[in-house]
Description:
Strand content: under 5%
Number of helices: 14
Oligomer: single chain
Number of strands: 2
Region (Disordered): 314-366
Amino acid sequence: MLIGDQAVTVDHLLQLIKSSLKMSHNLVKSDIIPKDRQNYQSCEKISSEAAFNALTSVPSSRATQIYLQIIRNIRLAFISTETKYIDHIYYAWLNVFIVRFWYTWFTKTTKNELDSILNQRNYIKQNIRTSTKRQYFMTHSALFSIEINSHTLAYIALLVIQCQLPEECLNVSLFNSQSCEREFRLCRSMSGPFSSIVNFTVEQFIQRVKKLSYLHSIKYRNNNDHTTRSDANFLVPSHHKHSKIVHTGQNTSSDMPLKIEMIEASILQAYSDATRRMCEVNIYHRNDIPTLDELSRITRLQLQKLQIADYSIPSENETDLSSDSDDGIEDEEENTFEDESDDDDSIRDDEDLSNNVLNVSGMTYQ
């Protein structure tokens, strides 16, 4: 990928591992090229503050730093439990403006110009001529995901300000995929080691979640309540990698109440920081940066041009296939009816044959 006149590549991280001590960045080669694509711990390490600061010593790595910062902002905006909600909005919208500037520059630049930039940076590959232009930008799914989730954060904040939603909805870290997968695994493990039942209904799932809630509350009280006697508490086993301090998420009541002015100031600050980062990779000059309204208008037109496949509405081919399958089912039913009638006739013939055999045997042995 290219951001301005610099390339986004893992070679910068590999060069950092070879040229710097591990104490400065805490990275290993398996973090850069993991076998498990869903290894969240590696994602945390490559987007950490230590790795980001150590990467500044690698020349021509500013685009890689910006891309890793996008990953870090996603973690802080949607997964981190220690981030305040107003900071959630800032990190999310910082990504929005970075990606918008990046995509606007990407659409205006031709593929030949992108190839020449890549050739100047000595990152050209043998199959560069047969590749498409889209390889220089992130996927459209990631683009829409950043836009939709960031707008959702701002919309939830407005609903809470208008008292249409409770403050508990501001705990966005509780709704990430990691927490949901963990709850499903715990609910499935409650079936017992000798049970083969791994699927359950919604009602059974709710009952199991209630049991988990009771167990978590008991564990939290025992670990944090120091007023009672230690010999009267339940001893809950804990893994050695888990922290002894239980984090229950951010306390929204202790934070300052949200206001519309705070949200606007946070978004404007994110826009200002994004423009500064785009100038560092020569996407825009300081005098050529579009305003916030102009950037939003351009992005809206660009997103409308993208083709999004809606699989919720069946296409003509699917309807034809469904009609063909229905016809096939009807033919199969007719065939089954015919087979059943043939089976009945054969059963009657067998009964007549058995009766005749009995009569013959009776006449023979009398």
